[in-house]
Request: fold
Amino acid sequence: MKWIERLTDCVDYIEENLCGEIDMDVLCDKACLSRLYFTRLFDAVTGVSLSEYIRRRRMTLAVKDLISGEKKVIDVAYDYGYSSPEAFSRAFKSVHAISPSQVKGKANQLKSYHKIGFSISIKGDIEMNYRIEEKDAFRVLGTSLTTTTEDNRNFEEIPRFWQEIVAAGVTKELGNYSSDFGKMFGICFDEQPDKTFTYSVSVPFKGQDKGRFEEREIPAGKWAIFECKGPMPRALQDTWHRIFAEWLPATGHELAKLPQVEYYIPKDEKMREYWAEVWLPIL
Reply:
């Protein structure tokens, strides 16, 4: 399967560059994905974030260098891309629960994380309802948050952002500008090399007066649209996980470089049948 082959190529590249710089652009090119999609796919398939996997592998190899006693801690830190012994020590302790200086004679207390391999098993025990649609370009109006995929912080920051703007009455104010009252979007824009991106809570917009909000355009494209039912944000995050862990490897679709879109129909978020859609852009 092509996704397994691509991920294997990415892991091989990571292994070859553990002592040096790991270029995210190279990884994304090998995976044929944007940064945001690549980090989602890696996390869904492996169960660990990309940054954590790299940290674990580097700290596993660092143990061998420290036990040999041939290098000082500062030299090992620089070998594995850390700018200071302090940063290296924090990373090392997060993996092994002891500091680098305590390694000698305590190898039995250390952890080893081996190079990951891929064998994707598609469960198929719970159906995923989806359809494929061609959509024209459309405009949205919204308010945004800058967040990051680093350590999956976006999964915490985005739900908190929703809570804050609902409590402040911002979503209600946005509704006054909507061309389809009650319907809202959560959209990921503007991925940056530092792993940050913009998340916008938006409404469909065909007007002229934008008030204090920002207008954006979603380009025309083809979308795989998945139903998402249940309490939010858990149901939504579970849907994203299954898309990348199960649906994408099983179907082999190529992803388009368009924004990720979440589409909401208003109901009580605690209701079991709260309904939303995930729009995945495909070629």
Q: What stands out?
A: The CA atoms of residues 187 and 261 lie 5 Å apart. The mean pLDDT is 84. Residues 50-68 form the longest helix (19 residues).
